[in-house]
Amino acid sequence: MAAIDYIGILSSLKTIFEADSRTSTARVYVEEDPQFGMADAGRAIVLTLVSRAPFAGQSIAAGKRTRYLARIGVWSIGFDVESFNAACQKRDALLAQVELVLMDNRTISGKVTASQLEGGEFMSVRNPGENVFCAGAETAVSAEVAAINT
C-alpha cells in the first residue's frame, strides 16, 4: 500500500524554503515551535499539519484509492527586540516571499498532486523571557494527496 507520507511533505517544504534565495535566510521548523534565541534570527518559517479530510462524494474505488485534502499551516514569523511594528514588518516581508515560493512549487517537489493557497490566521505576542516581540501570519495550503492500495 502506498501510504501518504505526511512528514515527507513537510520535509520537502523545508528543503524548498531552505534552497530558495527568497526564504533561505529564515530558520525553518517542522512540527515544532521556535523557542530560544530568536531575537537574533529575525525570521522563521514554521510548518505544521493541520487537518485532512477525504474528498466528498468519491467512490470507494474497490478499496484501491482514497483521495484526501491535507491542510498544511505555513507560518511566517517575524521577531524583533524593538517593537511589534518592526516584528510585523519582518513578518509581512517574509509572508510575501513564502507565498511566492509556494506558488512556484504547486506539487511540493512531486509529493502532492496539486495545492492551493488559502487564507490564514494572524497573531502577535511578546516573549517576556527574551524580551522579544513576535508577529506571525499563517498561509494555509490545501494539498491533494492519495492513499493507494496496491
Describe the structure.
With 150 residues, the protein is of the alpha+beta class. It has one domain: 2-Layer Sandwich (STM4215-like). Helices cover 23% and strands 39% of the residues. It is built from two helices and six strands; from the N terminus they run H-E-E-E-H-E-E-E. Strands 1, 2, 3, 4, 5 and 6 form a six-stranded mixed sheet that branches. A hairpin with a 4-residue loop joins strand 5 and strand 6. 29% of the residues are buried.
Task: Output mean pLDDT.
Answer: 89
Structural class: alpha+beta
Number of helices: 2
Give the low-confidence spans. Answer: none
Shape: elongated
Number of domains: 1
Q: What is the CATH superfamily?
A: Phage tail protein-like
State the share of residues found in helices, binned by percent: 10-25%
Q: How would a textbook summarize the main sheet?
A: 6 strands, mixed
- The CATH architecture comes to 2-Layer Sandwich
SSE pattern: HEEEHEEE
Distance between the termini: 5 Å
Tell me the fraction of residues in β-strands, as a range. Answer: 35-45%
